[in-house]
Fold these 4 entries.
Entry 1:
Amino acid sequence: MISKLSSDEVLSFLIIVSVILITARVLGEIFRKFKQPAVIGEILAGVLLGPSLLGTLFPDLFHSLFTSENGVPYKAFDGLAQIGIILLMFIAGFEVDLKQIRKQGKKAASISLMGLLFPFALGFIAVWFFYENIFSDASHANKVIPAMFFGTALSITALSVIAKILLDLNILRSKIGNLVLTAAMIDDFLGWILFSIIIQMMGKSDGSFASVSMVLGFTVFILTIGRWLVDKILLVADKFLSIGGLITIAVSLCLLSAVLTEYLGVRGIFGAFLMGVAIGDSKHFPERLQSILHQFVVNIIAPLFFASIGLRVNFVTNFNLEIVAIILFIACFAKLVGAGIGSRMSGMSRNESYAVAFGMNARGSQEIVLGTLALQAKIIDEPIFVGLVVMTVITILIAGPLMKYFLAKDEPRGKSAANIEPHIAVINQQGNSVITTAS
Amino acid sequence: MVSKLSSEEVLNFLIIVSVILITARLLGEICRRYKQPAVIGEIIAGIILGPSLFGTIFPGSFNAIFIAEPRSYAAFDGLANMGIILLMFIAGFEVDLRQIRKQGKQAASISIMGLIFPFALGFATVYFFYDRIFSVPSLNKSIPAMFFGTALSITALSVIAKILLDMDMLRSKLGNLILTAAMINDFLGWILFSIIIQLMRTGKEDGSFSSVTMVLIYTVVLLTVGKWIVDKILMVAKRFLSIGVMITLAVCLCLLSAVFTEYLGVRSIFGAFLMGVVIGDSKHFPERLQQILHQFVVNIIAPLFFASIGLRVNFVANFDMEIIAIILLIACLAKIIGSGIGARLSGLSRNESYVIAFGMNSRGSQEIVLGALALQAKIIDEPVFVGLIIMTVITILMAGPVMKYYIGRHEQSVKAINPDSQVQTVSI
């Protein structure tokens, strides 16, 4: 007989979901009020409810909430949180605009590649040479994997966070905004491929070549044949099915892709992300459907995942100032220098380059997803994970104000900055007018 | 350390969700194509994937998917539970308190006759033919008898609304009467069921009075003070918050009410349903939000619950022709006679009364939810549960065609008389 939840377990499960959802969303909204990404508040909710605070102050309450009934209700909650992160990555995939990458790719490439290679190299080197300073458990025989992970973690940029900051600064559709977004997309994309390769390499020490080719093969497959197939499926579905049918198809495709990648040994979220890219690229995917998925995932399911992070790790006992400082320093230094040089190379002014560099420096939810997976796969330990989360929060907090500062400094000479190349999309002219009216 | 799912469990969990979601929605869409409620297809999906078919033919892969990692299935069950809670929440939106107040008197006789008659008949049947239906003898016959009465008296609001919509008579006089009567029925039915669950929990005869009052008090408080508070909250929220926050707010209120009722010992879906009624009644609850919730729940989460019903029970092994026949006969007889008499009492013609009676006769997803809960609470056993489901499916299938037939006859016979069928065009 199939096991199911008993009545007490259901009650406990419902309480967990309610408490976490309410706390996460309340704090998330508070952060949003202060123009910060809601994800910070959601993580904070987990820290407050988790072993760091509630578990220390009121251990009895904490245990009766989260570890009662042999932990079965929490497992059920964890399933919900997993669906949350898969759907969130799926939606993040919508934001990657392949057409724009193709169009602006060359210009954005130098920002993106420099912003990827530099942090990757620096992160790799830092771990390689200062391994003992960062990792408490020095028994790692193989330094390559933690070093590669670290490089990747430092090189990912938070697409959604940047988009939000650009939107708040009202430069989302300007030249800089477009460049930063495209560069971030490429970064994200390559970063996830890199991470999938690392996860694959971890499984077997000898099969690194096969695993790399598998990840790349899957990526190429989804982006070519898969994309074409998805487009055709959506074309037919759009003609014959109701909006409800379309939602199911989209979610089913996402789940299938997630299952397939998880089965291949890459994490499920990578498959969900790729499928999101493929589906978001199809012009038969209605805007309204995207909005329904977006609202539900961002407001109900995804917060559960981010709060669950804080529940897993004790942020107080695992807080190591040295590690946090090292990670923060390398992360900011590498990304700022790399992305800064890249934007100078693509012909921007000094102040514009600073603005781009700080924009690219902001990490976000994907950084944390990456960290969680690495923690789960035992590539990193808790203090490093805490360091990554703290680093993410700080880079997000500094990005907005600093970008605003450097753009303001640039404005006296802003005539050249607002000079838009003729072949960039029409929407940019709106951005142009925004900048000219501002100056 | 809080326990979490391992990587294999996550993979297994994802496979379970994908397989069930895709099968359920596929069959659901096929049913919808043939103008039948999708819920029938979703239940069939569970039967196909469950021990009845897939488990018998391919026991190896069945075990690998659903049983090998018990915690993965537990996680899925959590998801399915969320699904049914959110579905009942949405079902609550459909109950229109204003319309009940307005049309209440007219609909009352249909509704009450359609409730009391099946309840009495169901109760009497179980009380006197207990051994025929239940394989396990029980000392206390009154709880199964009460459950049976309740199960027979509930009408499927959403199914009727869909049928009426397909027949293009949702806003006619008959359509309105049926809908209002079904709403009242639903509402009273759930209160009854909550009381039964409470009676069972306490087990003793002395605790029954306090548990009944608890259910009633919660209902009354939520529908008066709670309604006012929720309305005020939504009014403030609508002014200051984005649509995203409103969604969270609605879901949080639903969860809180669900947790509270589950804590009281009534099932959580009752709380979700009541909160749905209250929120749906507020005029500060935006249409778009309702849309988003509706689409996501109906298309993604709720199918998981209906499919999970088929997964739990072996429909082949528990198929008992005698029980099914008895249940089907009593259910149809009681409801059709009861609602028919009620309709005649409220002054409708003979053919119109038939239309209403067959409309009220169709059961739906809520019947199945009720059955699943009763099975879980061990009020009924598997064969009876299978009987309830088959009865539900058959009453749904016959409602549309029979109603159409009697409407045709009604229109023929009333050609001479001037029909005042547009008097009650209340917006729904």
Entry 2:
Amino acid sequence: MNHPRPPLRSRPQSELKSFPHLVPPRWRKPSPLIFVGLIVGAAFFFHGLWISELTPLRIWQGFSRLWNFLDKAIPPDPSRLGSVIQATLETFEMALVGTVFGAVLSLPLAIFAAKNTTPHRFIFTLTRSFVTLLRVIPDLIWGLIFIIVVGLGPAAGIMALTADTMGFCGKFFAERIEEIEPGPVEALRAIGASEPSIIVGAIFPATLPSFVASTLFALESSVRSAVVLGLVGAGGIGVELSTSMQLLRYDEAFMVIIVIFIVVLVVEQVSSFIRRTIIGGKNL
Amino acid sequence: MLSLAVDHLSKIYANGTVALKDVSFSAQPGEAIVLLGSNGSGKSTLLRCLVGLETPSSGTIYMGDAAIATATPHQLRTLRRQVGIVFQRFNLVSSLSAFHNVLQGSLGRSKGPQYWFPATAPQYERDRVMQCLARVNLAHVAQQRVDTLSGGQQQRVAIARMLMQDPSLLLVDEPVASLDPKSGREAMDLLWDIVRERQLTVICTLHQLELAKDYADRIIGLREGEIQIDAPTHQITDHELSWLYESSQTTASIETPV
């Protein structure tokens, strides 16, 4: 307060005069690679817009069809509510079983797929590729594959969700393991502990909160996937929804949609509450 | 008591840094050696080589009658069991209780997963954990997570874990560097009481010359990866010790006019 700011010296000004290139240009030419990338991206975008024929007219006509749907759908028909709720529970249970299987199987997978715990570079590459494979194949395709393997029904859905969860959790668990502090691991190694006891004694305690949070996230995603898996016959509510839709019984379909909405919302709220508690609070 | 001999040990890192140059010394059973040297003098590298966390570029380390470099993974584990380490940053598993951390000291000698969790550990090991915690006056925090404890308390939990391991040779890496002077003294007193009562051979790195003179039987001074001083504590002058910590430029400018 007692020392007023000194007036700006003229030195920067004179420096600018003698070095005009210090001023950044308004425009910079993009590199050829970025330029080509932008052209290709734009080409895909406009071609996609063109083939979809997404014109304002069609959107306007769509509104009247939506009105037609809502007109038939409201009020929703609760006559089959009992079986709808039962099928929705089956969907949730499919998601739960598939996610738990997937998360448990991800534990050994992640140990092999993390740089600092893998027994060998070759095993690291192999498991990483396997996890990537699980992830790049969409859950719906896993569903179709497992329907061929075990037939229609929730078993195929559970297996598809297990594969899906392993693709997600395997990657996140392994990355979390790679981030741990090396100190406690070194301490146990110096004590002469075996590799399995180092993993259980030093690595899992540090990574468990993050593992649980990732698993809950996978559960939320599995519940949504399980609904869609039902559409191809892999068990759960999806088959009810597609039947009602195909029979044009929109009031029944709307009831199904409402029940799905409630279940997904409850699962997401409960799961994010638990995740916040785990990450926020120190207690496991 | 385990004898230790280091023979012409050198360590050159992949990036070309020479951390240790032709280091040789041997420790008598029950001897307390303090390693002195500034940052980057090679103290920590030497300790890490001693326990096999780093592989030396050349030279050999003998513990008892086994050479570390040629030890099989199984032999290395057997050797590590007999070598306790107290780390500068404690290296406790922060999300576990003090009790669980001390129990982990038994992981070297115990086989089988029942030692992995306090709930399944045998009763006599659980009793020993409490004895070790009582020895460092921390029995009252056994159930607390170690990240809720103070730095001095965490260092004492680490000492209790070392007690649980029951080593014959003890390596200590700057045990007081993360502590305030008072808790540092307390940690050193506690550590040395234990060392003397169990007649452990101990190799301890330190930064503080005062502490080194108070606790060491023998001082080894490292500078730029080489042993410059190796003598019983009472034979070393303060001038020699402070020379270890002067940068090479400073020394050069002092020596040139003479």
Entry 3:
Amino acid sequence: MSTRPLPTLEGVTSPPHAGARAPATVLDPESREWLRCLRADDGDRDPCIARLHHLLLGAARFEVARRKASFAYLRGDDLDDIAQHAADDALVSVLRRLPDFRGDSRFTTWAYKFALLEASVKLRKRSWQGRELPLEPDVWSLFASDDPSLSDAAEQAELLSAVRRLIAEELTPHQRSVLIALAVNGVPIDVLAGRLNTTRGALYKTLHDARRKLRARLEQQGFSPQREDAT
Amino acid sequence: MTERRDPHDQLAHVLGPSAPEVGCDACFEQLDRYVELELAGIDADASFPGLRAHFAGCPACREEHDSLLALISGDAPF
């Protein structure tokens, strides 16, 4: 169990009975017990919150351990600090969102996702800390390759040229910047959202709209470039 | 700074999935149930259409899906 003080829970320290939605399904006993103790008015609640924080810290450390190979320059202390802060922020989120838990999954599965989100976002932001984001698109170098077998494929050349032209001519400047940053230059969506002072959901909507416009224009021009797997 | 140099790979990322997909917020809301269905061997995509396509288009959400799946499938060290 962590010896650090738990995060300040201002605004979420009252048992969140009010507004609680009825569970969608019959809760499993473990989930029911989590809800009971987190909503308790008696002395059960503080130890319950401490157990929840311990659970979230374990999930955050799990995520950090999974990703640490990509962050070789971070020391062990830095990584654990990220996990600790992720667990703190996840705890606040879980308690604030507790009325939204409908029992569609086990409580622990629902809570874990907050810790994994916080840890992964913090890792991505840390990796781009202090780095300039490539927002200005150089569409003419897009799809360039050192491998002639890739760039010279005749059947692809016209398609790639069309996509470059459509990116330059059909997208709004904002759509173009977002598309290039996220889909070409690999800027993490949370990092870009932070720099542009927007949300991940709003940015993905912009990306989605840009992609849809490109696909539609390509179809209009007789191309059928679709591939389901964009990974 | 371009991390993906394979133009075919770049093209797939630029154009994204063609199948209907949910956004990041809906993905997060549905992720826990989706992963539990996957682990139970139930067709999660039938229950939550649009998530699989979103994972193809959103590396961040895909990472979080993969982590949650790994965590609750027993890989957790705690």
Entry 4:
Amino acid sequence: MARKITIEPVTRVEGHGKVTIHLDDRGKVTQSRFHIVEFRGFERFVQGRPYWEAPVLVQRLCGICPVSHHLAAAKAMDVVVGVGPGALTPTAEKMRRLMHYGQMLQSHALHFFYLSSPDFLLGMDADPAVRNVIGVIAANRDLAVRGVLLRKFGQEIILATAGKKIHGTGAVPGGVNKNLTPEERDRFLKGPDPLNAGRMIEWAQAAIGVFKDYHRRNRETVDGFAPFPSNHLSLVRKDGALDFYHGVLRAVDADGHKVLDDVDYRDYLEYVGEEIRPWSYMKFPYLRSLGKAAGWYRVGPLARLNTCDYIPSTLAQKEFEAYKAYTDGKPNNMSLHSHWARLIELLHAAEVIKELLGDKDLQGTKLVKTGKRTAEGVGLIEAPRGTLFHHYRVSADDQITMANLIVSTTNNNEPMNRAVHWVAEHALSEKPEITEGMLNRVEVAIRAYDPCLSCATHALGRMPLEVTLCDPNGRVLEKKIR
Amino acid sequence: MRSKRQGPRKEDPVAGRETKPRRVLVLGIGNPGRGDDGLGAAAVERLESRRLPGVTCDANYQLNIEDALACSRHDLVVFVDAARGLRVPFLWNEVRPEAAGPALTHTLGPGAVVGLCAALYGRTPEARVLAIRGHRWGVGEGLSPRAAANLGRAVRFLESFLKRAAGKESRS
């Protein structure tokens, strides 16, 4: 008898999504889909608003990565006020970088320690009642405390640079509205212990060690879980270095050949298209040069470490070299290695934060620049989850007339669907019984991409995971709720 | 949104040792962009202007696991949140430590945060919750007139309580 499995909501991700898996009479998977069932609508909401409100308004998309939206919108509006990429004052540029790397630190810490580590430390088949961060606290209290404090440190950096931990106002079109006081700098550099930059670097290194240790003991599971070839896209610095704040677009294929290189992101529409499919609110982006079928790509930590040539900080570069050596320098297409890549980025973010804190430009007083007003601006940034596109048009009376956002998770839409399909085929297909552990593997595949499904109202963890088995006529045969 | 005022140290007349005034944290919860859901933040803002000694104020959209760190560093924590369905302008309750469930964001309650203080940092502060009745929850900033009136009463009560609480001593 044909069956349909629904996983809704997907847990330990931000926002609301569901998975449907269709099985035929023999239990063989015939179709799988990862649906995003929330409608965002921000592109429409901001129309008619004054352009200078955009950096504050659009960050309401998300309570987890608002800084990324804040900065991408600010970068776009820099162009509108005539301050193009690279033309900010040194203080403004570095304050924004500090804010962004603080965001990267807290978001990556949140993802690894709160969302993903339960699968590694407690096992994918562990009781879901304990397979969460509370279970991690019980299993390894010191590790849990470090995760909490890494996230807190990142949030404190955001507070100092953006004015608030969530939905700050630090970046304005053409610059920033505050600098970093010497007292704030000293607090981050010198304590109070353990909340200082040096300790964060140590703990980020230790977190990489946790992953490596798990990898050593579970190599087949990690390497063999949802590996599939893809293109990879990200910003890189002009010289090929990893850069989360600014750069040029680069894309490589599964073998590492450059599909895009040194592309000015303001021309993104020439290179990136978006396909609409009727069963999801989320679009499917693709590289125009490769077409809809072959042009889909990954973004995020895995993609960034595949596109960049090196990491411009000492300790992270050393880890990057070991990471690259594992695949003989070729692109890494193993989904669970995105956690490894994320932790290397965590270390890099901690190193950059420490370096920036020592820069006297952060105490500068030239905060904002203006130039010749333009009618259109594009801002791109490497958000924790991947490349984030913001594009606006502004009327002569300063109102936003058009907004187009391609958020990181949208860029990963096709890869997440591929990962779900891989698990459905390999873990669920033709199995006599569907266990909770099998369903968790579907979620593990999605979690590797750290999706942020435009959360605002949905409660994580306490929402039931509902699995419904239906016959071909939609009649409910069996229902499991956890 | 944070502020801190230090109270004076003094000698414990019984034990003959130096004691410290109680460290009090007032933590407002809620989204000021959703009407009366901003009651927690509004209460904290109003309280900050009173500059009470020994009282630290903070506010956020929701409670997070990391809030347990700040809570564990205080002797008394007061959570201030908006509430639906109350029959009175505000409600004042003790918070008992709870075992946190699998919730990660959005649903972490005061009891779970206090429970995490013990689990993560080995210290459990005394805790209270001040629930203020809200009436309007739509998109948009600003409190409804009835919620604003409830806020005034609740903050007067809280201020009075904190003045008494700050006078007590911590021996931790």
